[in-house]
Description:
With about 220 residues, the chain is α/β, with parallel strands linked by helices. The chain contains six helices and six strands, in the order ααβααβαβββαβ. It folds into two domains: about 1-40, no CATH class; about 45-225, Rossmann fold.
Amino acid sequence: MNTTASCIRNALDFLYPPVCLSCKAIIEHPFTTLCQPCFESLQLLSTFHRCRRCFHHLDEGGHRCQRSTLKSQAACFDDAPTPRALLSSSPSAIAPFIVMQWGELQWPAPDLIIPTPGDWFSRGNDRWLTRKEIAHSVAHLFSRPCLSCLRLHRHLLPLPYLSLEEQPPHVGTETVNINKPEAIINMNILMIHDVLTTGTALRTAAAALIHNGAADVWGISVISG
């Protein structure tokens, strides 16, 4: 049985050789998604000389944090082709980078892992599913529970799909539904996001979680847009 499966896999690799998701070069190992050079090019964003609250780089001149109930937010990578390719790969390949960046940030251990909300009409959307699956993988590495409990109200367009000009600067806590609100009470929560742009999705979700009894909320994204 194993011999047959191995032969089939070898034949498929010959006919359809695996390629790197980023540079499209043929890769030798059939169970990887990035070639060695692309994988080695992945560098976590340095936490040095960044605002500990919003992760803004302090070398970029005047800076003033936007007031938020979100304790801190951060990202793992700058927006580039290789991190984007990684984001489209297996969530289990992304989760270790999030945990490593969390260690660099020296945030306290979370009690609960939650993905940022999906809107009512795109719960099956690829981006929402990706955030959910990454959150589950991160929770597994932390040995903590994961709860996909946040939803935007149906009258709202999905924040991650709006341009920077279209995204509202403030979205009230009443715009987010929380399933099983009793599960978040007094919890230190780590929220998982995919691409950080204005931070509206993280801030809105954090405000709703705190309003419903969470102790503190941190947010980490795979990519800083």
